[in-house]
Amino acid sequence: MKGRPYLPGGMDRPRDKDSHRPRRPPSQRRPGARVHLDTPGAIWYAPPSAPRSSPRATHRQPWWPLLLIAAGAWLLRIAGFFHRGGALGHPVDYDEGVYFSAAALLSQGLLPYRDYFFVHPPGIAVLLSPVAALSHGLGPALAFSVVRWLMPLAGALSTLLSGRIAQERWGTRAGLVAALAYAVYPEAVSTERGPFLEPLLNLTCLTLAWVSLRPTDNQRQTRRSDVLAGALLATACAIKLTAGAWVLAVAWARGMSREGSRVARVILVAAGVSLLWLGPFFLLAPDAMLQGLLRFQLLRPPDGDSSLTSRLLSILVDGRLGLTLVTAVGVTVALARTRQQDAGTERLFCAAWLLTVATFLASKSYWSQDNAHLAPTTAILTGLGADFIARKLHGARTQRIALAVTTLLILTTLPGVLRAAKQKDRFLLPLGDTLRSTVPTNSTLCAFEPAWAIAADRLPGLPRGTPAFVDPYGLMLNDALSAPTRFPNAETAFQGAHSQRTALQLLPRCDVLLLLGRGEWQLSDSSEQWVREHYTRDAELWRRNP
């Protein structure tokens, strides 16, 4: 046994035969943990264990390598804007137009649920509204570009937080790998170029984890940490309902550490802050809000990739097989450490990753961009996996080789990310110019993709009283739910008469229609016939007959 005993009562231990120096008295010995044995009258001093992380210890861990990776992540995201078209020259997704329009309309007094149909919690509209409000002075197109330039900053901050969380738990090596994994995660890079849900959702969840996992010195700091964690948890759920996976993950991570009181405090604060997020909108339009957040999400027809195998391949394999291999090691290690009381980080991110994957597999709709919300958990678990592999190897040189191989596996995603950054949208800017020059400002334009109107410096629902076509896709699918039968997919639902009900009430109030491929997909044959009877086609536009 490596500990040194001393006899109580001031009696010193006899000298060793081969030593001429007396033993140090207990008060001068190196501090160690006292271990009481069955040996009568003796107390053994165990050698000191490795120091636990503390707020003071974490300050000595370097930030600058993580800052360099975060800067690289920012450059990787804004690389899509380095061409003549700028931020609007990179392909714009349908969802970007919906979320930006909701935020811009909120800044001008038009509320989701009350004034137009909306299928997500109001968090994204509220959080983006201060920047989207620039559309009132600069115009929607320029304000949208500003938002697109700001979103990469959220990606850079998430990269930094991913690295810092792993660094504080397992060391700088794990932190560097985690930051790198987030920086080059394909869907995170693409969504963090625009006003999607995932950039703010990921940043909120990582901030929640960082605040919750940092050690505290006293009860006051602990309470403050729990209150902030609860507020962040509510904010995440106010951005996207799938953040509910983090509620369960936080409860499990803390519960396994026998910190039930902290779990209760976090959940109670989250419930209270959720009321602040949702309450005002619910009071103004309770039925419409329940339809968008509950009825639509639970009963909507399937859409996107419906095959379970295809979803798994998209989540684990497509362009990221090397990254997934390292992540799998991290998941395995985290599961093996589940019962360790101090393994809160492992439990939190492992549970959040597993629950998020399960949510994607069970969801009625799934698109590859949804994978962006796996970036935070994947990054942390990849850092854990890389650190575990290196620690299992002996010798500094062998560990460096293992780290280099791990880095190369993670960077296998980079070629696809760089190819995606080179994509250009050669359609949107010319369309915006055409709409500006051919549609009078006093004419009501109804576009089946909000981004088309944004490119022409227009917002749906403005001026007040015009049709608020913020999310025609969600609006028409929600109408389809009133049919007596359930549809196998969204395309079939759009061919039903029920899905056309509200659209046919709004279209007569439009002076100019912009259908293109999406409008033609969402309108049934009979609705298209109605359009041909009441409107005349003019290139891409349909103008109402006099």
Automatic annotation (TrEMBL):
<dbReference type="InterPro" id="IPR018584">
    <property type="entry name" value="GT87"/>
</dbReference>
<feature type="compositionally biased region" description="Basic residues">
    <location>
        <begin position="20"/>
        <end position="33"/>
    </location>
</feature>
<feature type="transmembrane region" description="Helical">
    <location>
        <begin position="348"/>
        <end position="367"/>
    </location>
</feature>
<dbReference type="GO" id="GO:0016758">
    <property type="term" value="F:hexosyltransferase activity"/>
</dbReference>
<keyword id="KW-0812">Transmembrane</keyword>
<feature type="transmembrane region" description="Helical">
    <location>
        <begin position="312"/>
        <end position="336"/>
    </location>
</feature>
<feature type="region of interest" description="Disordered">
    <location>
        <begin position="1"/>
        <end position="56"/>
    </location>
</feature>
<dbReference type="InterPro" id="IPR050297">
    <property type="entry name" value="LipidA_mod_glycosyltrf_83"/>
</dbReference>
<keyword id="KW-1133">Transmembrane helix</keyword>
<keyword id="KW-0472">Membrane</keyword>
<dbReference type="Pfam" id="PF09594">
    <property type="entry name" value="GT87"/>
</dbReference>
<keyword id="KW-0808">Transferase</keyword>
<feature type="transmembrane region" description="Helical">
    <location>
        <begin position="228"/>
        <end position="251"/>
    </location>
</feature>
<protein>
    <submittedName>
        <fullName>Dolichyl-phosphate-mannose-protein mannosyltransferase</fullName>
    </submittedName>
</protein>
<comment type="similarity">
    <text>Belongs to the glycosyltransferase 87 family.</text>
</comment>
<feature type="transmembrane region" description="Helical">
    <location>
        <begin position="402"/>
        <end position="421"/>
    </location>
</feature>
<keyword id="KW-0328">Glycosyltransferase</keyword>
<keyword id="KW-1003">Cell membrane</keyword>
<dbReference type="GO" id="GO:0016763">
    <property type="term" value="F:pentosyltransferase activity"/>
</dbReference>
<dbReference type="GO" id="GO:0009103">
    <property type="term" value="P:lipopolysaccharide biosynthetic process"/>
</dbReference>
<dbReference type="GO" id="GO:0005886">
    <property type="term" value="C:plasma membrane"/>
</dbReference>
<feature type="transmembrane region" description="Helical">
    <location>
        <begin position="263"/>
        <end position="285"/>
    </location>
</feature>
